[in-house]
Amino acid sequence: xxxxxxxxxxxxxxxxxxxxxxxxxxxxxxxxxxxxxxxxxxxxxxxxxxxxxxxxxxxxxxxxxxxxxxxxxxxxxxxxxxxxxxxxxxxxxxxxxxxxxxxxxxxxxxxxxxxxxxxxxxxxxxxxxxxxxxxxxxxxxxxxxxxxxxxxxxxxxxxxxxxxxxxxxxxxxxxxxxxxxxxxxxxxxxxxxxxxxxxxxxxxxxxxxxxxxxxxxxxxxxxxxxxxxxxxxxxxxxxxxxxxxxxxxxxxxxxxxxxxxxxxxxxxxxxxxxxxxxxxxxxxxxxxxxxxxxxxxxxxxxxxxxxxxxxxxxxxxxxxxxxxxxxxxxxxxxxxxxxxxxxxxxxxxxxxxxxxxxxxxxxxxxxxxxxxxxxxxxxxxxxxxxxxxxxxxxxxxxxxxxxxxxxxxxxxxxxxxxxxxxxxxxxxxxxxxxxxxxxxxxxxxxxxxxx
Length: 451
Hints:
Layout: H1 6-13, H2 18-31, H3 33-40, H4 43-50, H5 65-78, H6 82-91, H7 93-98, H8 113-123, H9 127-138, E1 147-156, H10 164-186, H11 195-206, H12 213-241, H13 247-269, E2 287-289, E3 297-308, E4 311-318, H14 328-339, E5 345-348, H15 355-363, E6 367-368, H16 380-408, H17 419-450
Parallel strand pairs: 1-5, 5-6
Antiparallel strand pairs: 1-3, 2-3, 3-4
C-alpha cells in the first residue's frame, strides 16, 4: 500500500482533472460500508413514501429530499450527536456523497438543521408503507421467506430514574420559573413561597447516599404542598389576566397537574397509580416492567419485531406496556403481506405459546418451537430437532439484533424529545442495520458473479 504525505498528494492533484478526482473518490465511497448502505436503500420510493418535495419558489434547501432521508441514516450509522454529525459531514467527502451534497470550501454551521429535518420526517412517518417499499427493494436478497422469528424488546429513552422526589422537584422548579417570568411581564409581585429553602433541602437530600424513609417522607410532603400552591397561583393568574401562552406551556401545566394528582394519591395510599407519568418533559412515557435481573423496569418504546432471514421489521410500537403474546396472528399476517407467501415456520418465545396461538398455528399448519403439551408422539425426536433449530435461529439472530442495534446503531438511549421523533429514531436505527446487511449481501453476490 502506497502512503503519501499531504505535500506529495497536493502536487499529484494539480495534474488531475476535477472529473477524475470525483470518479476516484466516488468509487472508493461505494466500496465502503457506508457505500453498501447507499446502494441498498431505495431512495426514490422512500422520498415518495415520505412525500417530501422541493420548494416550488424561493431558495432551495441545503439538503435535497433524498439528502434529508440520508442524513437520518447517517446519524445512526455514525452514532453521533447532531452537532458532531454536522462537523463530520463538513469534513468527510464520503458523508457528503451519501447525503447528496457537495460543500466544497463552504461549511454548514447550523447543527440544528438535523433536528428540523427529524421533526419534518416524523410528521410524515408511516411505518407499514415505508417497510413495504424497503422489502420490495430487498426481496431478491432475502431467502427463506416462509420462515419468521418474533420477539419484543424495549428501546429506552434517555431519562433519569423517576423517583417521586425527582419528579415533584422538576415540576416545582419548572412551574416556579415560569410563574416568575409571567409576574415580571405583568408587573406583579411573585407569591411568597419557601422555594429557596426547599431547593437547598432537596439538593442536600439528592447528595445523600442512603435516602431513608424518614428523610423521603417530609420532603415529599413539602414538595406536594409547594406544588399545590404554585398550581393554585397559576390558575388564579390565568383566570384573572387571560394569559396567552404557547400550546407547549399549557400542555406542560396540564401534565404537572396530573403528576400532582398521581403523586398525592401515591403518597396517601402507597398504591402506584395507573398510567403513571415519569417525566414532565416526556409525558407519553410509561414504566414497562420487563422482569430482567439487571433492569426490572424500563422507560421507552416497546417494539414487537419480526425477522425474515435476518432482516428486521416493526410489527407494533407503543409507549404503553402491552402483552406481545396476543400479537402473534398480526405478526404472521404482516409477514405474509410483505412476502406474499404463506408463513410455514415461526420461532417465538414461550410468552407467545398461548392456547389461542397454538390453535391458530395448528389450524394453518405452521411449525413452531413451542413446547408441546400432553403426551409426546412416537416421532417426536425429529420434531424436537426442528424445534431446536427454530429456537436457535430466534435466540441468536433475532435477539442478537437487539443488542447490535442498541450498541452500534444509536438505540441504546434514545435522545429524541417528542413521541413522533422517538418513533422515527427507532425506525431509522433498525433499518440502518438492515441496509448494511443487505448491502453486504449485494456485494457478496457481485463478487461471486465476478469470480
